[in-house]
Amino acid sequence: QVQLVESGGGLVQAGGSLRLSCAASGRTFSSYAMGWFRQAPGKERDIVAAVNWSGSTTYYADSVKGRFTISRDNGKNTVYLQMNSLKPEDTAVYYCAAKYGTGSQRILLYDYWGQGTQVTVSS
Hints:
single chain; about 120 residues; mainly beta; 7-stranded mixed sheet; 4-stranded antiparallel sheet; about 0% helix
């Protein structure tokens, strides 16, 4: 069992930055690939970024490439999402998720989810 708790969301002006954190419980954090997803009102939940167990391989949605950076610290059981140059269209609830084994872009393959943190970008 893995429990995930996100933090770091908030209200920011367009062009600003936020850093999301996701703290995981358990001693097997390094066995899991991690992903950040987001869901805007009336839209499906979509992947934003993912990272493999070691942090050596990452994936980004086209919409955030060059602006967002995913990273992880296995010693702290934490995964991060640094978000720069934020746009109003980045407004959504952001979720972190854990997938045992290799990483994936497929939302249905993730085993554990956090409760989400709201990110609002004003124009």
